[in-house]
Amino acid sequence: MWGGRFLTKDNKLNNSYETLEPLFNPKSVAILGASESKYKIGYLQVKALLDGQFSGEIYPINRKAKEIEGLKCYPSLSDIPNDIDLAIFCLGAEQVQQALEDCAQKKVKAAIIFAAGFSETGEEGVKQQETLTELARKSGIRIVGPNCVGLVNLSNGLIGTFSPAILSVPLNDQRGVGYVSQSGAFGVLTYMAAAQNGLSFNYFVSVGNEMETEFSDIIEYMIHDPKTSVISGYLEGAKNPDKLRSLAKEALDRNKPIVVMKTGRSIAGSRAAVSHTGSLAGSDKVYDAFFKQSGMVRADDYEDIISFSKLFLSNKLPNGRNTVIVTSSGGRGINEADRCEAYGLNIIPLSSKTTTEIKRFLPNFASASNPVDLTAAASVSNPELFIAPLRALIEDPDVDNIIFTEFPFSWTAENPLLQEFIDICSRSNKFVFITTFPLDGMSLPPGTPELVKNGIPVIPGNLNPIRGLAKLVEYSEYYRKNQEANVFNSSKKIEKQRLQSLLEPGTTLSESQASVILERYQIPTTKRVIAENPEKASQHANKIGYPVVLKVDSPDIPHKTEADAIRLNLKNDQEVKKAFNEIKRNALNYKPDAKINGISVQEMLPDGVEVIVGASKDPVFGPVIMFGLGGIFVEIYKDISFRIAPLTRKDALEMIEDIKGKAILKGTRGKSSYDIEAIIDVLLKVSALVTDYKDSIEELDINPLIVYENGIKAADAMIVVGNKVDDKATIRG
Amino acid sequence: MWGGRFLTKDNKLNNSYETLEPLFNPKSVAILGASESKYKIGYLQVKALLDGQFSGEIYPINRKAKEIEGLKCYPSLSDIPNDIDLAIFCLGAEQVQQALEDCAQKKVKAAIIFAAGFSETGEEGVKQQETLTELARKSGIRIVGPNCVGLVNLSNGLIGTFSPAILSVPLNDQRGVGYVSQSGAFGVLTYMAAAQNGLSFNYFVSVGNEMETEFSDIIEYMIHDPKTSVISGYLEGAKNPDKLRSLAKEALDRNKPIVVMKTGRSIAGSRAAVSHTGSLAGSDKVYDAFFKQSGMVRADDYEDIISFSKLFLSNKLPNGRNTVIVTSSGGRGINEADRCEAYGLNIIPLSSKTTTEIKRFLPNFASASNPVDLTAAASVSNPELFIAPLRALIEDPDVDNIIFTEFPFSWTAENPLLQEFIDICSRSNKFVFITTFPLDGMSLPPGTPELVKNGIPVIPGNLNPIRGLAKLVEYSEYYRKNQEANVFNSSKKIEKQRLQSLLEPGTTLSESQASVILERYQIPTTKRVIAENPEKASQHANKIGYPVVLKVDSPDIPHKTEADAIRLNLKNDQEVKKAFNEIKRNALNYKPDAKINGISVQEMLPDGVEVIVGASKDPVFGPVIMFGLGGIFVEIYKDISFRIAPLTRKDALEMIEDIKGKAILKGTRGKSSYDIEAIIDVLLKVSALVTDYKDSIEELDINPLIVYENGIKAADAMIVVGNKVDDKATIRG
What we know:
Rossmann fold; Dna Ligase, domain 1; disordered N terminus
């Protein structure tokens, strides 16, 4: 399945975020199934809109009731004299289709459908849902649900949900974070936890079965929504990864961070695969690559969503990783410093100038090194001790980030010291934030709203804010790179080559067959000839020049070493003939029914660094490229990196940077560097090849690919061809 | 500093936990500096004992006051007619010495000293503290502090602290967890956070400056205290690591888990070191080794302390890693499953029998695979859905652990379903616990006390309970191994060898010098002779037999490859002579003032797997052993493991198991296994060597040590000798 499942059949309705406007900002809402009974969803929903002081018109629909909570009721949609933007279905599954037809009739623009009982229940439900989808598309109705918790917009009081949990959360000021969730229950829990930690999402959308509108449609709306500064989400599986990827780029261009919690690492499951790449590319690793390539920020938990959002809301981007901790408890200081180092932030030693400056104001038993320990006196009796060190650290050009692990409780909004603290921070481009110890009633000091308003996040320590800072630094680096010209484009256009005669559907290609394909894409391979008997082999060897290598050439024996069907460094005719016979015998012993094309006679390549470049087809993202050092580095250390094709030059470079073994490629112990440009070149060519033939090539391994100080050569290769071969020109973006 | 700093000079007072009894269970307490003024520590302390309903006598000491809070005051200690077990000093630093002298006079048995202003302030303070220590030891007074927050014993109401934070925590039932902290503030925060999450420590001890009584003394007391089932602590640096290590063994024998948060990973700092081992052995890695060897459980954060303690309190040990999640939110289920996999627990597929059994009772849209999703209906309207799956999972022999991510709020203590749930769990040896979503007022369901009482922990998800379960499984494995005979002993006694003539103080030994030492401990080395000129070299080569290796032999050139002063696989006289000259020239170019003993002519060893065995001296723990695969595996992948000497056979085995590269040693792709017994043998011999000469040998590298299918050989070695050489017989434990 190659994406696009949720693009419309006629490619018309679903490609505009503007048509989602009636979902988020309806002028009028009809509640189908409104009820007088206080325990029914149809009542809770009416009440929710009233409690939320929804700014538009509310029309409860109820066949019998005259009014609900003082609002006039209408027996049916068609009885309403005015236009309806949004219909909220408080109805059982069996009533949904008729109601949707009524909506079409009434030209309602959008709907929220809570009812469960559709595609999640099996075949019958899938069919019913398809009927609804068709109806919605034909009539242009945008729909959230079914099987969802609804939609909330805090800026206009549209509380489009029945969830008592969400209703119980006080409506804080809107704060610029939109939230979209593929799980209703988890979404609600996160919404509540955020509110309890001082963060109200301005939008909450539970997408349910994603019948007509899906995850990335909501993201798209939020990207274009001026009230949203940070987009967050909970994702179990991307329905339209291509769209999500291009949206991520758009968001990055606008510096609108997308923080997404992607679950399902554990249920990724491995597929049966022939190639190394295929067996190593678990889908979670591919998601990781997706996040890296797109600039989206991956959250691992609901705590991350809250703390990352709070940090990103500050609207300041850190300049680097150099971090100073200011604490009034030695223990907490060390603990937070440990976390910083664990997440790749640097706890830097302070300059003697800064140390001296801090010491001037601190008592002699305090510590002016990093972590700066103001001692318990600071938070309890001498809160002014917070000011002088801050001033000194702000002046220090080596410092990028300053983290306070406490904040004086006596500094209320009116306290001049709070204002002084804020002023110092505001005049600087350093990133300052406060991470508190999460005790009931103590995690958000009284100054919090004033601090947050001025771009200084206050985050309870249990929400992982230090990891959040590390993510913000990464995002900031990525954002700045994005602003540089062309890093996202590959340097040269690689032409699509015609391969139809070479890609026999449903087969595994032997080394010699695969090599021909690589050569078409100008990837250097070894000189080789296939020999049918020992005499021919030694003739070829003489032409190629000794020493030579002999290997079995068979689509059925991809791992030649395992079959003992490869001989290196053969120096004369006699050795070649002996090797020929041994290889043939071993190959047939290993796999008696193997189809053997012959024995391949090849030049013996000089030593270099062995790397592996591979590709496999991910069920969600399509062709995925792998890179790593060969041999045990792949097998034991799993020192590999993935990116989704097509690769940009930046992707290819980062794939090499991602692996620990890059140190070997860059030359250790005074050894000179290997040809990294040549690796990038092969990566981009493989990316072009598997993108051109994404419907045909299931798996590809170049293993080993031997890298020299100058140049590179594929010493072995295999390709698995799928059952369908498509040779039409495709577009590579 | 080789441990023992806190052992007493006369080795008498400090080695018995029994003398700590008056600190924890005094019959009478005198409060020095008791006060009528409600804001003074001297008042708060009196009030705390009264509020705690302390079971013993309370004697406030105040020169003027007649009574405080209804208790009769005494003008001085000597005026009290009865014996005093414990004195609590609510006094400034300047009054402490006189007061301690008074205590000695009165034969007070123990004291708590809050005052700061001693060793933490510098030289003068260190001296004052030493005077106090001497006084305390002479008079046999056990002391907690100075510079501490005090001591709490919830079983007798001894609230020996002034901390308003601790006083604000309600006194729950005692629950069997003792807690000792090297940080006052962090200790108090953890104490409060634990209480807010339903866990009261039965003891809280802030050890402050550890003047007379230190961290491990308190641990020792708790090990012998029948009221303590789990010991927890916060540690910045062990003052007496040897004692802690032997206590850990004792605790393990008694199945009394010790959970310790050790901070300071980031400030470990690296020392200048000549050997690989020296530069890689950061002190935090050595602490990790310490935890692994001792069976103590390392916590990374205060959350870990709370959740690990709660899990360990259940008093059940998991049988393995096979884990099933039961949830009523698909999202939470996946999220917790991800965490399980991340921490090394197995989310197993359920057998068809179990699946069928679960399906019989669940609605058709629920999921009977793992995670088992009961859907929202379970927690809200049909809580009885929790029972049937539990019963089926308890019956399944493949399941070790069952985690519920929700628990019905309607199940109060009287609810028969709660009792049924508990009964099912109690009759099984499977580990069951509940991890809740941490929302205010929702994280501890009403059934919690009943569940906990019956060994079913209930832990808010933000406290990392899944990591806790993984740690509990590890502990359980360790505990069971400990019960097997002899795994902690090395298999044979290795005699101490006399080396005094070989260990010249303050020098680095060349390969040939180091090899002689290795040979004394029967570690196999290469055949070699030192040649002074090219002719001698070729003569030696002929005797040894071609091919040979030539290397510079110099204490000043430990890294021969870097100096290009090594030539391998020399096949004849001519090659040897040429190599001799090149090596000499390169060595002198590399380091013109190097002392060169000559050029070492050695047998050329056949290929094998290159490993490295090393030792270095840790400032806290003394000699530390390192093991890893050689070359880039050490340098780039840091695939190494550490243990503190002396090693047991179990330690040596685990060092090999710890590294990823063990797969190579065990034979990959059908290759046969290498001689792992020989590696263990070398590890134990090196351990013996550096333990025998722990005052002399600063660093040691055997690199490479070449391992064969049968046998092993040290191909190169170096030793750094410290300034002091002690050749006396030492005891190895």
